[in-house]
């Protein structure tokens, strides 16, 4: 699932993972945890990237994500909802080559003014949630995600929902989309 900062990705992924048998992984959260992991070889560069709202090297991001996914697979997870991934076409290709297919892409559509207003009142206590940080992330989002969106549109696997609505309304729309595509009990996509 992709969407700009404040578009509601985290909230929606959480709700979807309760309605379908998905494990929710927020790549932003996983990267922030990695910064705090003692002995991490990536901590400094990650802190720099996140402060600048930038996407780092694909090898680093996908390797950290893969380790987190494998921990869940060991506990029995088969399907994931990846919150904030893939952020670029390069990441998408690399992930699919190394790990497996991405069944579909959901984009949360939200006007910039709404995202800024939400983040201004949100109590997220994140070190990149200041006005400059938010602007940079919106900019990166707009630059790098359009190629991912085009890729999934070409595959016929792009679903877009207006997230400038109450979370409860947005999730109903998402659920309606996924109901036709995913087995609710197993979380598996019907055509994969
Ligand atoms: P988020 O929690 O989704 O708002 O992401 C916060 C920050 O984490 C971003 O500004 C990036 O620096 C980093 N990040 C999130 N997702 C990715 C990704 N797929 N690849 C690389 N960096 C990411």
From TrEMBL:
Keywords per UniProt: Kinase, Transferase
Domain of life: Eukaryota
UniProt keyword Kinase present: yes
Name listed for the protein in its UniProt record: Adenylate kinase-domain-containing protein
Native source organism of the sequence: Chaetomium tenue
Lineage, top ranks: Eukaryota, Fungi, Dikarya, Ascomycota, Pezizomycotina
């Amino acid at each position: 699932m992709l969407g700009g900062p404040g578009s509601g990705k985290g909230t929606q992924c959480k709700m979807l993972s309760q309605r379908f048998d998905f494990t929710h992984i927020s790549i932003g959260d996983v990267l922030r945890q990695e910064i705090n992991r003692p002995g991490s070889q990536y901590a400094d560069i990650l802190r720099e990237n996140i402060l600048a709202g930038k996407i780092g090297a694909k090898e680093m991001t996908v390797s950290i994500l893969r380790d987190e996914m494998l921990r869940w697979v060991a506990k029995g997870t088969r399907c994931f909802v990846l919150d904030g991934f893939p952020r670029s076409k390069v990441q998408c290709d690399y992930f699919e080559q190394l790990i497996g297919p991405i069944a579909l892409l959901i984009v949360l559509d939200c006007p910039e003014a709404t995202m800024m207003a939400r983040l201004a009142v949100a109590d997220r206590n994140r070190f990149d949630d200041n006005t400059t940080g938010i602007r940079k992330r919106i900019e990166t989002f707009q630059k790098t995600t359009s190629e991912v969106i085009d890729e999934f549109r070409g595959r016929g696997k792009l679903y877009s929902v207006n997230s400038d609505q109450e979370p409860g309304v947005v999730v109903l729309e998402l659920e309606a989309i996924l109901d036709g595509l995913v087995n609710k009990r197993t979380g598996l996509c019907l055509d994969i």
